[in-house]
Design goal:
With 224 residues, the protein is α/β, with parallel strands linked by helices. The protein folds into two domains: 163 residues, HAD superfamily/HAD-like (Rossmann fold, 3-Layer(aba) Sandwich), CATH 3.40.50; 54 residues, no CATH class. Helices cover 33% and strands 12% of the residues. It contains seven helices and seven strands. It is globular, with a radius of gyration of 17 Å. The structure holds magnesium ion. Magnesium ion binds next to loops.
Length: 224
C-alpha cells in the first residue's frame, strides 16, 4: 500500500545504473518498500493511534480507512493526506521490516543488482534511508511518484540480463507490465491482515506472500 494518492503525478526518470553503483551486466531486482519490505499499514496505524485516530482495515485503500474513534464516517481525505505526509516525515523510520525480506535480498544480491523503488513522498528520504540501513536493506533507494512502469522500464533497459519487479499494488504491477513487459513481475503483500483484501491478477502477475518462496521464484526468473 502507500503511493495511492500520487497516481496522477508523472513518474520520475530512471537514473543510470552505474550512478547507483550497480553492475550493468547483472540481472536487476526492483523492489517496493511499503507492504513488501516493511509493514507500512501496521506502522501507519500506530502513528495514527498516537494522534488519537484509528486505521480500520476494511478495504484495501488508505484515506478511506482513517477514523476518529467511534466515528462511522472516515476522516476527510485532505486531513488523512496530512497525517500520511507527517508519517513519512516523522514516523516511517519506526515500521517493522517484513519477515524474511532482508535475508532474501541478501541472497538475491549475490547474483543480481537490487534497487528499492518507493512511492513515498520526498520528506521520507532521510527517515526511509536510515530505516533501510538499520534493517540490512541498504540498497540504492529511488523515490518515485506516479505509476512505476516508466522508471522500471528505464532501469531494466540498461541491462541485457533479466529483471524482476516486486510490489503489493496491482496498479504498479500493471504499469510495469505495460511499460516493460519483459520484466518478471511478482506481487507480494507482507501484512497477513491485508492479504485477503489485496486485489490480485494472478494470470498477469504471480503472487507470492512468503519471502523465501519469493526469493526462489525471483532467482529462477532472473538467473536461468
Ligand atoms: Mg507498496
Amino acid at each position: 500500500m502507500a503511493g495511492t494518492p500520487h497516481h496522477a503525478a508523472p513518474s520520475v526518470k530512471a537514473p543510470e545504473l552505474s550512478a547507483l553503483g550497480l553492475d550493468q551486466t547483472r540481472p536487476l531486482v526492483i523492489v517496493d518498500v511499503d507492504e513488501v519490505l516493511g509493514l507500512f499499514v501496521e506502522g501507519f496505524g500506530a502513528f495514527l493511534e498516537s494522534r488519537g485516530l484509528e486505521l480500520r482495515l476494511e478495504r484495501f485503500a488508505l484515506f478511506q480507512n482513517i477514523y476518529r474513534p467511534g466515528a462511522t464516517e472516515h476522516l476527510e481525505v485532505d486531513q488523512g493526506r496530512r497525517h500520511y505526509d507527517d508519517f513519512f516525515r516523522y514516523g516511517c523510520g519506526d515500521i517493522r521490516p517484513a519477515p524474511g525480506a532482508a535475508r532474501a535480498l541478501a541472497q538475491l544480491s549475490k547474483r543480481a543488482g537490487v534497487v528499492i523503488l518507493t512511492n513515498a513522498p520526498g520528506v521520507s528520504r532521510l527517515g526511509r534511508t536510515r530505516w533501510l540501513g538499520r534493517h540490512g536493506l541498504d540498497y540504492p533507494l529511488l523515490l518515485n511518484t506516479g505509476p512505476k512502469g516508466p522508471v522500471a522500464a528505464g532501469l531494466a533497459a540498461q541491462t541485457p540480463a533479466a529483471s524482476a519487479f516486486v510490489d503489493d499494488l496491482l496498479s504498479n504491477l500493471d504499469s510495469v507490465a505495460e511499460a516493460a513487459p519483459a520484466v518478471h513481475r511478482f506481487q507480494h503483500v507482507a501484512d497477513p491482515r491485508l492479504r485477503p483484501l489485496a486485489p490480485s491478477a494472478l494470470q498477469r502477475h504471480p503472487r507470492i506472500d512468503d519471502w523465501s518462496e519469493l526469493q526462489a521464484a525471483i532467482e529462477s526468473a532472473v538467473t536461468r
